[in-house]
Specification:
17 helices; six-stranded mixed β-sheet; mainly alpha; Leucine-rich repeat, LRR (right-handed beta-alpha superhelix); 6 strands; Cyt_c_Planctomycete-type
Length: 442
């Protein structure tokens, strides 16, 4: 597992290293061309050394690129073309370095025009290889005449006039997921570039099941605990916000994950209309009705004040907490205490308590907290996700979790909780996911 992670890390260095030969080649060409003027002819003396640096950087870029290709998330033909261009480029760079060496120059010196022509050929090959690499990362059409001719959809005049998929969902998916799931780079063999490809899915089957978000792999992945290895997006990329997750879930369930549907064709709650407006850049006040009515579909807590206690938020931030806003109306919070942060729990209990009803995600992992420290948990009755991993808590935590009737996921990895307590916890009605490996119960 460690070797695999090292391999993945080394492969991801390829985009960094691959720019070195480009920069070196640019300097070589500059020196080569300036050398035609007698006053700059001395610059050509640096080209032999630069040639060896070009070869070395090209070789390392190729090695790390090969490691990256083993990830298996890139289409075969493009990878093959990119690899062969890189191999030929490396061979040519080695050849030019040898031709520039003193041993060769003592026997025969290349005519200046021939040398310049060879460097131009290498520059053209580098351009081709770079284009193939860009196609792998951004899609084959990222630089094409078709892209220039492509007509962008005009922005709708109002929320009601917007087509849900075409104007809202597709831009959202491309913005959030398109970097890894495009025609050039299909992680898990999935592309989000159009609805047909979403419905076709990837390695694990269809990404969407129209009308059933619970069976839709895409919805399942974005709702997982961020510590889960299947959580999307991966590699530390910014997760979807609660509003974006709500919107995607609603689209799959109520709009049947279909194209060509506007809000006028669907039953839309004020909350969904508000989220769509924000995605389109049309805030409330442009004829868009806003409301704090509760809908089971959105899983918004009943009777919740619109605003959370701003003073309590500032107090938590001053103590080292991270507080993220997930939804604006009403304000729903994601609160995280970074691992190893020392805080005065007794002093902060009033602030935590005042924000408890607005908090739906709470992360307290790795802070040496006991059940005595966590008595305030009983007030977090709207909590949906809770991380207590790497804390010395045991079975005594169960009574503190009983009031959390909305809790769906809890992480107890590396705690002292027993198998019996875990079985009881998993049998609770609302909890769908319990993470508990590496527990150290007696």
């Amino acid at each position: 597992m460690i070797l695999l992670e090292i391999s993945q890390f080394l492969g991801r260095l390829h985009p960094l290293i691959v720019h070195l030969p480009i920069g070196i080649l640019f300097v070589i060409l500059l020196f080569e061309l300036l050398g035609y003027k007698s006053r700059y002819s001395y610059l050509r003396d640096a080209i032999p050394l630069l040639s060896w640096l070009l070869f070395a950087s090209t070789l390392f870029a190729g090695i790390f690129g090969y490691i990256l290709s083993l990830d298996g998330d890139y289409p075969g033909p493009l990878v093959s073309q990119h690899q062969w261009a890189g191999i030929i480029l490396c061979i040519l760079a080695l050849g030019m370095a040898l031709l520039q060496s003193d041993r060769f120059r003592q026997k025969r010196r290349l005519p200046v025009v021939v040398q310049t022509s060879l460097w131009v050929v290498i520059a053209m090959l580098t351009t081709y290889a770079g284009h193939q690499g860009g196609s792998l990362t951004h899609g084959e059409d990222y630089l094409s005449l078709e892209l220039l001719k492509e007509q962008k959809r005009p922005k709708p005049d109002s929320v009601e006039a917007a087509l849900v998929y075409e104007d809202v969902i597709q831009p959202l998916l491309i913005r959030r997921c398109g970097q890894c799931h495009n025609e050039g780079k299909k992680k898990g063999q999935l592309s989000v570039t159009n609805l047909a490809k979403l419905l076709k899915g990837g390695k694990t089957g269809p990404a969407l099941v129209p009308g059933d978000p619970e069976k839709s792999e895409l919805i399942h992945r974005i709702k997982l605990d961020p510590s889960d290895e299947k959580f999307m997006p991966t590699d530390g990329k910014t997760p979807l916000t609660a509003e974006e997750t709500i919107l995607l879930t609603w689209w799959v369930k109520e709009a049947g994950a279909a194209e060509g549907k506007s809000l006028t064709n669907l039953e839309v709650s004020p909350e969904i209309r508000s989220i769509v407006a924000k995605q389109l850049g049309m805030e409330a006040g442009n004829g868009i009705e806003t409301s704090n009515e509760t809908t089971e579909q959105l899983n918004i807590p009943a009777g919740l004040a619109i605003k959370a206690d701003s003073t309590a938020i500032q107090q938590l931030k001053a103590a080292g907490f991270m507080v993220r806003l997930l939804l604006r109306e009403p304000e729903l919070l994601d609160i995280t205490l970074p691992e190893g942060t020392k805080v005065d729990w007794k002093a902060l209990e009033p602030s935590l308590g005042s924000l408890s009803k607005h908090t739906i995600w709470l992360n307290l992992a790795g802070n040496s907290l006991s059940e005595k420290d966590l008595q305030v948990l009983t007030q977090f009755t709207n909590l949906e996700k809770l991380r207590l991993d790497k804390n010395p808590v045991g079975d005594e935590i169960l009574p503190l979790l009983e009031p959390l009737q909305r809790l769906e996921a809890i992480n107890l990895v590396g705690t002292r909780i027993s198998e019996a307590a875990l079985a009881k916890l998993k049998s609770a009605g609302t909890i769908k996911r319990v993470y508990f490996s590496e527990t150290s119960s007696p």
